[in-house]
Amino acid sequence: MSILVDATTRVICQGITGKAGTFHTDQCLLYGTQFVGGVTPGRGGTTWRGPQSGKELPVFNTVAEAVRQTGATASMVFVPPAGAADAIMEAADAGITLIVAITEGIPVLDMVRVKRFLTSKPQVRLIGPNCPGIITPGQCKIGIMPGYIHTPCAPGQAGVGVISRSGTLTYEAVFQLTRLGLPQSTCVGIGGDPVPGTTQVELLELFNNDPGTSAILLIGEIGGDAEERAAAYAAQHVRKPLAAFIAGQTAPPGRRMGHAGAIISGSSGGAASKIAALTQAGFEVAATPAEMGLAVQRALSRQR
Amino acid sequence: MKIHEYQAKELLAAAGAAIPQHIVVRSGAEAAAAFDVLSNGGGVVVKAQVYAGGRGAGQLLDYPDKLGGVKFCPTRELTQAVAEAMLRHRLRTRQTGPEGVPIRTLIVQADAQPDREYYLAMVLDRAAGLPLLMACAEGGMEIEEIAARHPEKILKTYVAPETGLLPFQARRLAYELGFTPAQVPQVENILHALARVFLQKDATLAEINPLALTRNGQIVVLDAKIDFDDNALFRHPDIAALRDVQEENPLEIRAAQAHLNYIQLDGTIGCLVNGAGLAMATMDIIKYYGGQPANFLDVGGSVTPEGAIEAFRIILSDAKVRGILVNVFGGIARCDLIAEALVQAGREVGFRVPVVVRLEGTNAEKARQILAEAANELPTLKTAADLAAAAQLVVELSR
Q1: Are A76 and A174 part of one and the same domain?
Q2: Could you read off the pLDDT of A271-292 as tens digits, one per residue?
Q3: Dmax (CA) of chain A
Q4: Burial of B389 (0-12, 13-18, 19+ CB in 10 A)
Q5: Does A144 touch chain B (CB under 8 A)?
Q6: Together in a domain, A235 and A152
Q7: Does B340 participate in catalysis according to the annotation?
Q8: In 10 A of CB A7, how many CB atoms?
Q9: Which CATH number goes with the domain that contains A74?
Q10: Residue B84 a catalytic site member
């Protein structure tokens, strides 16, 4: 079991003919994801070929046509920042129900408009932007994460659900889980931007309801109050073992630490209040990034 | 991206807000000449233009008298003397750190004679995913304290980007701030200007503090601060042109040119990491083991030899650095290629301090071999098996 994506998910790539779109669609195909087509306006009717996988996919001018022809329900967005918001809304309008926006650097007011647009489409879920994507190990990878570090669950086995605001720090965490022999149900990168499509709270709810998820690891960072909200939700609703790590304990206020969302403003958004809220809500909080896997292990054993 | 106070006020004025007249000056003589234009039988206010806040309560360093970055000057002579002092001495405020910042630009502003001060701001409310307009009848310097102690005194209204600030929203805020019917239209103009600049120019923060009601009943923007979304500068060449690179850290500018994300900090241990989250986490683990990070540095998802060389040059040009921790998780980027880039960087740059490398992920074994082979050539290069060991080692070697 898993959340949002599995072996049956049919995926297209928006921006498939670009350098990054080509490379990562190919990597996803090699992992086993069921990609069924791509979209690049002006290139419709041509055939895309994966340089390594050798697989061929039809290219369409519009997402609407791609959906009609392929029955895709998910899209991986690699469109550059200036056109990314439009691409996300096009996908939502065309009937795609899971949009995974990898693009980094989308203006935040564009994302505000996207969120407003999506309120009229409650069946659509947006993951990202500025994120590594989503993976259900062994079944479906939509994104730029290295597939091999993940461990699929054996049939009937439950795994760790991972929710994260960052990329390489997530790989680090997954790598630790794999080394400890802890398989993962689904890993979701929600992205480092101030206005993400999907919040930690929504994913906590999905993982809590997924019988294939035995524990949840939340990797947060400074900026905003999403982790505090997640802690409040978890204390109320989640009965599974919980672990967390917050990056940015040493970051100075007022500076943007790489991610547009990672900025401490005034007295809010600091690591200390997030760690306090998560600890109080029952999360095992890792003291260092080297102990994220161990924190999950502690959470699991505490439950027994 | 930050801009100066005078630039923020000029943007608001262009959008319809009333501001006191000012002249930008860069010498005592220019300040004295500006006094002649603006004093109008009274005085003027000399204001330092630096990106740091808290100027009024700040102090000029190595200056015998109490003088910060904002000063009312009743005479031409004092205007010139104050301007000269500000341009000669660094200014320390609660936002600058103990070493202060140099002042290169001043404005001389007509004395608005404020009678009452208010606070207006527009920010992005992340949880709601919408811009939020805030107003408070108690403006001035202690707004953070009011927000903490009396949150009910801060009036709030969300602004939908597709409609902009609606007339009734501005009217209601103006009345709720306690303005008289005669004053309300002036306040509405300023609120609309604030919302227009925020939405049309992709601001992330636009603050008017204070908004002043003057003794003769005028309502003007006395001070303003606007930050812009770096990701949206591509569609605002007019805003991008306002960047004052002299106000920014030269190492940070250099890093940006090499597509590196670098922020200089106060510690002694340099960091070179791929990915922003992992870079922050690396700083944290250095601190956990008793060290202090000298910088945040995200080289991006992949590591090229050119990027690594420039990254080491930038880290090593900070004289405080006594050790470097390289923490790379090779996912799609292969560790062996990263190791080769590091060795090449060592040859080019020369590692004058201990460099502890922790590589994990794709081809990590092969990478460790490459680094081991370079050990004779690069004696300060050390490898560590895991992140915790690497952090402990670099802290120890940097003591």
Answers
A1: no
A2: 999 999 999 999 999 999 999 9
A3: 58
A4: middle
A5: yes
A6: yes
A7: no
A8: 12
A9: 3.40.50.720
A10: no
Comparing alpha-carbon positions, the chain A residue that sits nearest to B234 is: A82
pLDDT, tens digit, 9 for 90 and up, residues B221-271: 999 999 999 999 999 999 999 999 888 888 888 988 888 899 999 899 999
| Predicted TM-score (pTM) of this structure | 0.92
CB spacing of B281 vs A169 below 8 angstroms: yes
Residue A135 maps to a domain: no
Between helices A63-70 and A81-93, what is the axis angle to 10°?
A: 40
pLDDT in tens, A194-207: 999 999 999 999 99
Q: Where are the alpha helices (DSSP H) in chain B?
A: 5-14, 28-38, 76-88, 143-149, 167-176, 184-200, 237-240, 250-257, 276-288, 305-316, 335-349, 364-373, 387-397
The reply to whether residue A248 touches residue B280, judged by beta carbons under 8 angstroms, is yes
Residues A28 and A122 in one domain: yes
Residue A2 resides in a domain:
no
Residue A295 lies in a domain: yes
Residues A157 and A261 in one domain: yes
ipTM score assigned to the predicted complex = 0.90
Per-residue model confidence (pLDDT) at position A255: 77
In a domain, residue A4? The reply is: no
* Same domain membership, residue A72 and residue A25: yes
Q: Which parts of chain B register pLDDT below 70?
A: 141-142, 301-303, 332
Amino acid at B126: R
Question: Given an 8 Å threshold on Cβ–Cβ distance, is A247 in contact with B229?
Answer: no
Contacts of residue B232 in chain A, CB cutoff 8 Å?
A: 107-110
**Domain coverage including residue A206:** 145-302
Are A113 and A162 in the same domain?
A: no
